[in-house]
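Second attempt. The first submission of Integrase-recombinase protein had a stray character pasted in from the spreadsheet, which I only caught after the job came back as garbage. Lesson logged: always re-copy from the clean sequence file. Corrected sequence (290 aa) follows.
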Amino acid sequence: MSMLEKKGINFKNNSLAEEYLRSLKAAQKSENTIIKYRRILERFLRDCQKNLNEMEPDEVLNWLTINFGEKKERTYNLVLSVLTSFSKFCIAEEHIARKLTKNRWRTRIPKSLPKYLNNYELSCIRIEAEKFSIRDRALIALLLSSGCRRAEAASLNVEDMVIRERTAEVIGKGKKKRAIHFSDEVAVLLESYLETHPKDEPALFLNKYGQRISTMGIYQITRKLGKKARLPKSLSPHCCRHTFATTMLSKGAELEFIGEALGHNDLNVARIYARIPTEQLTSMYRKFME
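This time the job returned cleanly.
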């Protein structure tokens, strides 16, 4: 019995949902994405028991408004995107005749600048990090120096690291491999960390139980460091990623290069950094990584 069936969803809708989720896995969507989509579909199909081919768009909008109308715009739009994607899948597979959502339902979200560390905050982080374990120091330095995602850092194996050349191979979104580059500081920290690393353990970063660190574990390390450094905002792995990108921009890197370094397939994703005043960044990072 599937997870969806256990939650009281009618058999036909359950079958369509499971088929859709399998298609996401076949398309190499990340495990976190599939879990997120599954939870949203579970809630929707549990509340809306009518067969999908009998459901009206107004019923979907009513459910969306009641359950997510007062939530943050990003949350509302995420749920709408999941339902739209599921609806399109069902149409393509000829399970339903028309889409159950409307594009006009989407709310407009003001584009915000990426959250990154300024020069003073970065100095606070580096000073406070000296009090952390060698593992944590190596991990934080890698995030700031390479711009890799926390999931990419968590999935790193010792054999993926070419410390002599300051490079590593990571598995990004869509299971795509790419090379990342890191600083001399990271190389020194990694060499020190690996001196006490279990030789029979393939994972690079380990938790206190000697197992591969989780993405949540990495998040907790960055958050703890941010609090210890008394930053005015929460420090997250993604903030480290944005800091890497803005550092590169301040040093004159092209957006195309930044996008490739971050593992973005779409250059437009990297264009958000072009909205940050270059003069401000140059001043902030003129001494960073020199």
